[in-house]
Amino acid sequence: MGYEVKDINLAEQGKLQIEWAEKEMGALLEVRKRFEKEKPLKGERIGLLRIRVFRPFPKDAVRRVARKVKRIGVIDRNISFGSEGIFFQEVKSALCNEERKIPVHGFIAGLGGRDMVVESFKEIIRFLKSGDSPKDIRWIGVKK
Description:
By secondary structure, the protein is of the alpha/beta class. It is built from five helices and five strands. The chain has a five-stranded parallel sheet with strand order 2-1-3-4-5, sandwiched between helices.
């Protein structure tokens, strides 16, 4: 099963605009739509790669997008204890042999049915903009 960009002309335009890419599960995209009118992230240069099919994982599509960005933030709503979120694992795996090493940051958010709120997205963006190296997954919006 192959993957392709719907309109390749948009790829060049997007390359100029995107500095970070988020990977989101469908539920997180719905949260993002809920706040669209408020535009709480206005001015932030963010791209979105929505993964619609998990198996087979679209490694080639992830690699194409990764070549155009400075860093990637992967938001998972799941955790495999002792490991990481499943999307984070798959994205890192897809990019591990790439010549250009793109920092991939993993975020766990929205666990236990918790909503992703605007402040959660802002926290993720602040971390990505800080330029810190990815060391481990970061927990967002969980009780301490």
